[in-house]
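QA checklist item 7 of 12: single-chain prediction sanity check.
[x] sequence parsed
[x] length recorded as 262
[x] structure emitted
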Amino acid sequence: MTLRDYFYRAVVWLKHRFRARNTLGYGVHSPFLYYIISMLIYDKNAYYAFPRIEKRRAVLLRNKQPIEVLDYGTGRSGMRIVGQIAATSVSNRREGEILFKLVNYLQPDTIVELGTSLGITTAYLASPRKEAHVITFEGSDAVAEIAKETFDRLELNNIEVINGNIDDSLASFLRDSKRVDFAFLDANHTEDATMRYFGQLVEKGHGKTVIVVDDIHYSISMGKAWEQIRRHKKVTATFDCYDMGIVFFDEHLPQKTYILNL
């Protein structure tokens, strides 16, 4: 990240706080979107799976094991401590809970995650609907092995991990898949990669598909990607939650971006 990126994030955060509406469902005329905002995103109630997943996160945060991590996005590899990865490269609890509630409400059959990391967010995606097929993509073999241990410990048997460069593995998977019902993008945080993955997933999507994009204001590059996504010809409503964006494609929804505080 550059100094310009840090400045961009600060400015966007201030604008977001000013524009966000804390009143539940403010200005939302769609019953579907109103329910998601008021009963899912702003709801703070805990579900049965949350404590188990967070207990696993706590174990990973204490893990001092060094592993070699290959980052296909930057082309660099190096040794990292598992606990450091858990602290800096895994979605926080609030985002995980929202993903869980979205999946629990929408009941998708096929869920795609780009960027498995240590498997905490994947567990939030896979826990609410055990019949769903969760396909998660991770570039680093060592990281993927720890994620698989996470799934074993949480007794999640509906997850398929695909290792390797997502630029290659995602295209290969989508050629043989029929449709994507839900997707979470948290890999290679650049404008080009994000738009490439988003475009590929949209081709396998449908009117009821929901795509969640992480770190939409992480950098100037990701901010540009988010602007393109909002204006995509197939996109209707979007939620800008600052840390992540939620994208809808239902033609019956208004073409509008709602600014929300998590």
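[x] summary fact logged: The beta strands are 66-71, 76-81, 110-114, 133-138, 159-163, 182-185, 210-214, 238-240, 244-248, 257-259.
[ ] second reviewer sign-off
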